[in-house]
Amino acid sequence: MASKLFLTVAVVAAALSFIAAADYVRSPPREMLRSPSSSEPPSSAQQVHISLAGANHMRISWITSDEKSPSLVEYGTSPNSYTSKAQGENTSYTYLTYKSGKIHHAVIGPLRDQTTYYYKCGGAGPEFQLRTPPSKLPVTLAVAGDLGQTGWTKSTLDHIARLQHDLLLLPGDLSYADYIQPAWDSFGQLVQPLASTRPWMVTQGNHDKEKIPVLEHSFLSYNSRWKMPYQESGSGSNLYYSFDVAGVHVIMLASYTDYDVNSDQYKWLKGDLSKVNRGRTPWILAVFHVPWYNSNEAHQGEGDGMMAAIEPLLHAAAVDVVFAGHVHAYERTKRVFNGKSDPCGFVHITIGDGGNREGLARRYKEQQPEWSVFREASFGHGELNIVNSTHAFWSWHRNDDDEPVISDKVWINSLLSSGCPAKRSNGLRKLPLAP
């Protein structure tokens, strides 16, 4: 199913004049992409994307315009030869005058690691293929936030497709539909070539909220279309969850729901972190939308409330790296905690520069904080190659004339190798938890 995208928001047309890196002049904004109406049969799977769904399992999600189409996935390790099948569930939603297609979710598995599987959705349409992540390190994660649907988005996705990555992390702001529901459909079409082949693990941003008081609830479209493994991780909300991949425990958090010590998210997070086995997952990552450490003029202070509540939990659990979006620019910090550098803190990376229609956040604070290492207002994506239990290589790839130019790179040592987790072994138990 595909609906034509009608967006009323104009493309930012102003030239990008502020130079974050003195030797680089950024290219101008690019046009909005508009996906043509699909000529596929109503029963054909569209907007296909996959995500992890617990140990050795994947969730396949797709949409059909045929309401009678079954929520069935057939799959196997050879093309057009399906030895297994999984029956899933389906939903749909209405938003003002818009009616979605039939949204299907089916979990397949158990699956072998680092294996290519071929699959067909609903018994009709094209065959897709996916590759499962490794069960042990090394593992490679692509990272891109605030994607949207512009020419820069397409460039970012093309660059990521060249990576030998195992999954993608997206810290919020997916489609930039902003209440215009057909834009969710065109976004699904845009990302399908990549999102149908590698797991996309996403969390929500402010542009995904779409709440209309009295009329529409928050995150209706997001929750209906992008189901994540929240139940598999013991969470009560699709807005926050966790998962393991290879030797990494990843926590996907919600910037736009309650996070204080009385909240369900806080209680879940504390319980989730307390169960982490650093022998099995020596690395811990956290992903959310609104950055805590930000020297850009945009969105200053918006993450302070969440930071006050949640940062002590991440510090006590010795989280290694935090990824955020929201600010349409790139910034990497030293290891930080409580507003300053800390050798047992986390590396904070703001990467809300995937290609959104609003343009770049071009103005940084004149005085660069001591904890800020590298900052630049350019579109791009990141790659985290976690080599073993002690070392990972991070690189940020600026979009430059359609070539992914590595502009920032650094080796990161795990906190496990520094002894920080052992020093704070009782830290989580001492932090507050409302009765």
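That was protein one. Protein two is written in the same sequence-then-structure order:
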Amino acid sequence: MEGDSGNSGAEAARDWKQTLKARLGVVASQEPKRTDQELKDNEMDLFTKYYVEWRGDKKKNNLSYRSIPRFYYRNLWFLLDKHQTPPLIGEEAMINYENFLEVKEKAGQKCKQFFAAKIFAKLLNNDPYGRISIMQFFNYVMRKVWLHQTRIGLSLYDVAGQGYLRESDLENYILELIPTLPQLDGLEKSFYSFYVCTAVRKFFFFLDPLRTGKIKIQDILACSFLDDLLELRDEELSKESQESNWFSAPSALRVYGQYLNLDKDHNGMLSEEELSRYGTGTLTGVFLDRVFQECLTYDGEMDYKTYLDFVLALENRKEPAALQYIFKLLDMENKGYLNVFSLNFFFRAIQEQMKLHGQEPVSFQDVKDEIFDMVKPKDPYKITLQDLISSGQGDTVSSILIDLNGFWTYENREVLVANDNDGNADLDDS
């Protein structure tokens, strides 16, 4: 029966499966006789193509599954589909526990570990018939298998065999991954070393806060960075996704391009004066002094790796690792907390910048009270790193203290919100 534009998601699901079967039939009839292996390969390619098209909203995860054995892809999916439990409600095909156990018996030994009662219970989601979504279970299994395979792949680079990767190990892993990522096809080989450095730095900045020089493979698998990296397997990744993905070619070229633009004397390093033009050029001199006092430099200049830490901290100010980086710079006396003196020390530089721009300086007393009201520290006179993180206001507080533009945005937040609302109203009227 032909469907119209009002086809449900369930009908769409049937459509892609029928398309797959029909396509397989056409291929078999039109092409010269091929070996069993070639037929299986073709079936797998078609399955992946139509499955990815149908589940477009999950494309990132599906692309990660391309390296998973066809056993999981084909047999498991069709067994689950064959044993779905009616009635069909909405778009999702469902399966009850009885049919779930039936699939377990037919799926084979490799799959049995996934058919546990606790996994079924975990995926239950208020279905009146006590069923789970076939798609959710399928994606759960794919994710587990992918994690297992990725763990094995990463372990091959664990030279010490202790469950950790050193910086050089992860560099080798990512360097050998580049040719498998279509989104990086356009990268010049001369840029590979800078790309690898850019990619590896994100892992180490966020996963090695104590700067031990090694990361647990378990932590690499638990974070979302590998998903972002493997998203680059998608040949049709949107421009927005590329721009927001640290590992994409445009993002890596943007960061490196900024570094080159700041390096006015072209010596491959950044002086404090050169770094002062970073972003909107409104970071205070006092803050930049602290950056060069605390961070690794060479004859008073910053290399690309140190610059990457700086960028990751300032671009991710809501994240604990970024706040830890900034807090260390603000905690001048290394006391483990910020007091009124340290807040005043940094805010004076903001007041001086305001004078230079012809603005009336804001009272420190007012700003100090607002900061303590925002953070609500356990000790009313001291703000710890944990206080900043727990408050959810660490990004705002750090912006107020280190960046004139950040302080101005905070001071004018109500006006900016009102302007946004007016702009939206104008759009609605039009």
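DSSP finds 23 helices and four strands in the chain. Keep this in mind for the problem set.
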